[in-house]
Amino acid sequence: MDCFLNRLAPVMEPINRLRARSSLSGHNEAQSPGIFCLGLPSVPTGPANVRRASNHNREVFMPNAVLPVCALIWILAIVPPASAQSGAKRTPEQIKASYEAHKGDFDYLLGDWEFTAASQEFGKFRGRWSAVRLDEGQILDEYRVVGDAGETYYVTTTLRNYNSALDRWELVGADAGTGLQNMGTARRVGAEMHIEQKFGVTSDKPSIWKIRYYNIRPDSFSWSGDRSTDGGKTWVKDFQTIEARRIGPPRSLGALAPAKKP
Predict the structure, then answer these.
(1) pLDDT profile of the chain (262 residues), mean per 10
(2) Does residue 113 share a domain with residue 234?
């Protein structure tokens, strides 16, 4: 409130002068039709609006320009300062605490998995999914759809990295030949992980997915994805679902460029 009053003071000054000059004439503001402006007496809005002050024998003009002033006051009232809009910067202690609290959010995905899936576009299919922790804590995983004879129908790689300054996970998917365009963010929500990610950004059918990992257990998890192809205006619920079963233990990948020779 104090911040708002400080911003309001320069705008109120000319109106207060007009009110003071008006009071010299004994004019009753409440009896005059006009505009109510942020708790001020009604401001007459007729042409010229000449008032004669009997004890000064002079004219006081209140032009219609007072209307933009009222509008400005209302704008100041409802628009917060830029500093308030940007939010407070997180302290190093908060950033460190966030990292410690969330660095293991995707640990359940580490290891090797078999999965069965159902898609509203492709029907039922199956595949393999493997994830490793990199030396600095990032999660690298490969998702592969396979056929009965071991042939690969589709494969994609995802890098997941926690951003402690923004308190969220950030992801990028990399299909061969498509660059690094399929960006997403993730957060832990209770016992689930929730992701929003773009797919097919460089294709003629880009989409946005809202993904849930749930029923997370040491040897299994469930996955569901809602899809939008119109920029998030409409969504198809459970466009794809996955049930995964562990076939290999969690694993990590050591430093690719170790500080010391092996």
Answers:
(1) 50 55 49 40 43 42 45 45 56 93 96 98 97 96 95 96 96 89 95 96 93 98 98 97 98 91 76
(2) yes
Look at residues 86, 119, 142 and tell me which one is the last residue of a structural domain.
86
Give the distance, in angstroms, between the CA of residue 96 and the centroid of all CA atoms in the same chain: 21
| β-strand pairing of 236-248 with 182-189 | unpaired
**The total number of structural domains that make up the chain:** 2
Both tokens of residue 1?
Answer: 């409130």
- Rounded Cα distance, 144 and 63, in Å: 73
The DSSP letter of residue 261 is -
- Three-state DSSP state, 214: strand
Q: Which of 177, 163, 167, 110 is nearest to 141 (CA)?
A: 110
Q: Which domain holds residue 21?
A: 2-86
